[in-house]
Amino acid sequence: MKKWQLFGTTVVGASLLLGACGGGNAGSGSGDNAKGEVKGDGSSTVGPIIEKLNEKFAKDNQDVTVSNGTSGTGGGFEKFLSGSTDFSNASRPIKDEEKKKLDDKGIKYDEFKVAQDGVTITVNKENDFVKELTKEQLKEIYSGEAKSWKDVNPKWPDKEIKAYSPDQSHGTYDFFTEEIMDKGDIKAEKNADTNVIVQSVQKNEQGIGYFGYNFYEQNKDKLKEVKIKDDKGKLTEPTKKTIQDGSYALSRPLYIYTNEKKLKENKGFQEFMKFILDDKGKAAEDAGFVALPKKDYSEQQDKLKDIIGKESDNKDSDKKEDK
Asked: Which of 46, 85, 119, 188 is deepest in the core (most CB within 10 A)?
């Protein structure tokens, strides 16, 4: 399978997600009789997790086709609102205005957490002076108040900062705006494609950028990670442990929002959601993210059962008793 690539607002569809053509043994999956088409869109951060999940899911669920796009968290919610998708991936919680629009249309939805992420701040590999930043210093940089590194710290060189950011279609942009900017404007070179941000920081010695932890993990030989002080002045660093337990200053959950009516009606969709939670974050780890604590997946499995009913679980129990 070709390497996962993200193309900003370009939809990445069923050609990447092989739900209809897995080559596993028929009858070996939990959804032996499951059929259907499942469509998703949204966060380019969550996208690689969905692909990893579907690579596994496809092996035993040949009659279920799962497709996914990466038009960004905001773009994904627009498609979710229009009814053209069954689930929407998000790298931030749903906004109040998005909730209202869904409510006005009579669309009931459910929120599931799929993994944990840490927004990682990086600078150019040749930058030998920026090792840590406070949230206030980040705000100075991304508000445009600090024009040079010397403006951030008098001990640093008087060289113009080149700041890079995801654009407004990204949940990562919204998260950063909320956590760092106090909802103020981000003044930086923005791009829909996270890979372009990575490359921009890599090429510019005065560059600084931010994105999901997996992008840093994939490019840590080319970039330098910056530690961040939390609100109490404690220095934090993004690691799997600190991201999972939330002690890293810029930790965040990653979400899947499901259309409840479509979930109840589509057996294939039910099986895919059960598979996601049964996986307990293994696919997320494979994609370079961090699994949630196991109890979080267990709690959400119970939530899913309450939504779709326990009929399928009773069938699974009958099979186990017959063995």
From this structure: 46
